[in-house]
Amino acid sequence: MNRLKLERGVDMYIPLRDKMVAYKLAISVANSELNWQKHPDKSRHGEMIALVNLPADCWVQKKSKVPNVPLNACVVWNVPKDEYFVIVTTDITKAAREIIKIYALRVEIEEDYRQLKDFWMIKDFKSTKLHLIAFHIVSSLFGYLFFQLYTTFPEGEELSGKSLPVVLKNYKSVAQPYIVVYAGDEFGVFSLVEYTQMYAKCSSKTQLILDKVLSKI
Predict the structure, then answer these.
(1) Residue 171's pLDDT is what?
(2) What is the DSSP letter of 45?
(3) 87 exposed, middle or buried (CB, 10 Å; 0-12, 13-18, 19+)?
């Protein structure tokens, strides 16, 4: 975590185990400073949160050449059960409400990753070359993000919350078929009716070439 922060400039948000020194220190400071506020999620009745700034030396690392970094901790207190939950981040600019809201995104992030891995073939690499791998990852992410954006529009609202296989199954059953024909650096997208009309006007030699397109459908 320290290496990601110092060498990559990447911040992390992680929960602490109850046996950790930092966990006990965060709770002790929160209870001594008494800066509790209501949980930002209104469904979490009876829970309070507090921000605690943890020093770098609250971590104990063995055989590490990377220095520790300070942390911001959001202490969550379930008042009725008198239970505590501590989330820390290496981004010391974040307040308690921001930390808890960002950490709450983990379920959605995990589902996005599952969708990309299982349905959008982001792990399906055909080459070991770095530039081709990067292109594949970026293309997959763009496709997934544009699909998510489409679901925010009225015509795409019914697809919200559906996985790619379900969308493709429904789309194929109602959508008009299209044929893409390309030659060199140029291509054309035709409906089945347009393609048939174009095919009928072509010479026998050209029809033989176009037959190769139909044979791949």
Answers:
(1) 63
(2) T
(3) buried
Q: Residue ranges of the chain with pLDDT lower than 70?
A: 60-63, 170-176, 213, 216-217
> Is the separation of the CB atoms in 53 and 75 below 8 Å?
no
* pLDDT on residue 77: 96
Share of the chain above pLDDT 90, in %: 35
Helix axes 106-118, 130-150, angle to 10 degrees: 120
Distances (CA, A) of 113 to 96, 109, 122, 188: 26, 6, 9, 34
Report the 3 state secondary structure along 61-119: CCCCCCCCCCEEEEEEEECCCCEEEEEEECCCCCCHHHHHHHHCCHHHHHHHHHHHHHC
Give the Cα separation of 132 and 122 in Å (integer): 12
Judge contact between 148 and 140, C-beta under 8 A.
no
pLDDT at 174: 56
DSSP state of 4: I
Separation between Cα atoms, residue 52 and residue 48, nearest integer Å: 13
* Residue 217 in tokens: 């459908």
- pLDDT tens track for 146-197: 888 888 888 778 877 777 777 777 665 555 677 787 778 888 888 888 888 8
